[in-house]
## 1
Amino acid sequence: MASDTISFARGAPSADILPHEQVREAAQRALSSDWETALSYGVGIGHPGLCKWVAERHGDLDASQVMITNGSLEAGAMLFQHLLGPGDRVAVEQPSYDRTLLLLQQLGVELVPISLEADGLNLEELEAALEQGPLKFAHVIPNAHNPAGCTLSAEKRRRLVELAA
């Protein structure tokens, strides 16, 4: 592939924007200060120090309520398995991330597609879906939607929270 070509084949960041020096420095610090923890399997919720840091950074949460995952796909898979089962109605944006849809389909849920607009989820369609019966879950990508690229507007975010309540 020519160097001036941008591949849209997969959602991986370009190597030139990855903070390799910062990662190298962080790894060096972790290995110097506590190599046994850094190289062990650790606990299921993730490195306790990282959980504490995330909790403090996001408003002094209780670190025991923070779980570190390998990424949003793993987090979603665990959340879906915990909350959903066969036949549950789940609202999903159309289009949506294909791996998320695959995870949901494997659980046997009923997918309820909701179209996207320039400012995110079509809330009229979501309200119509709610009139047809309860939704157990709504999977929404509010920022930099993959693959559509839209962002959910502030007005729609507020309405979505109202509907969820």
## 2
Amino acid sequence: MEKSRLEIKVGLFVFVTLALLGALVVQFSKGTSLFRGTYTLKLRAENVGGLKQNAGVLLAGVSVGSVQNIEIEPSGTNVMITLQIYKNFQIYHDARFVIEASGFLGDQYVSVVPTFNQPPLLTNGQEVQCEAPFNLQDVARGAAGFVQRLDDTAKKLDSSVTDLRSQVLNARTLANFGSAVTNLRAFTEQALNTINDVNALIGTNGTQVSTAISNVVLFSLQLGQLGISASNILATNGVNLTAATKNIQDLTVNAQQLVTDIQAGKGAAGTLLENPQMATNIQVLAENLSIASSNLNRFGLWHFLWSHPPVNTNNVKSATTHK
């Protein structure tokens, strides 16, 4: 009887010890403690990477819960992650949820990144969006494509260098370039000699150059004074210049009116030009004057005065008297 009681006590002791040991294991493992209250959050992500059940949830590096469950939604496009968060840790709605890894190849966990901590707080069962984890394979594939593009670029660059060496850096081009450098050197030497000559000329004729510059300055001052004098003249005689300009304008108007009257046959000059008989008489008088000047040229003035040669009635025309 005593032996049976001893066995029961030993068994009870072993059971309690195992229970306490299990509780301690749960307390210090990644799982949720049995003695702390929790609330649930649901994360929706496109890809969870290598995240596993019972993985930790860290808020600013502090463990605040664990991953309770991971399952694919019925649509098959997203994954729903269920988190168990300790009640004494409150998370604001503007916090970011990111799946990260411990180290480069360590275990993955859910990282909660606080931002502005603006209310309201996340409540039990609320769904939030989770950012996809860093995918090393996608980066490797992108790097492979980048390396391929670098290889293609290197090939094109090598081809361009080959074309450059064959088309530009050939023997003829290099010879021309050498000749150009030689000509440039000769031109530089000539330019230096010219500069030296100019410096010598200026040094020898420094007095004359200074005098010429002084004359130019004096001439500029005189031009300035002349401009001031002209301005003063215009300011002093502005009224007279305005009157002269007005007289010229009036004279022009009168001349235009006179020409208009003559063309219209008004006045003595207009009547003379408009009368056909008077125009004929003027033409005959002009012809007679031409004959008289011709006789003066042939016989001279004294012969004309003293000899009284007979008048050539055939050449002299008679003018019709205008009544």
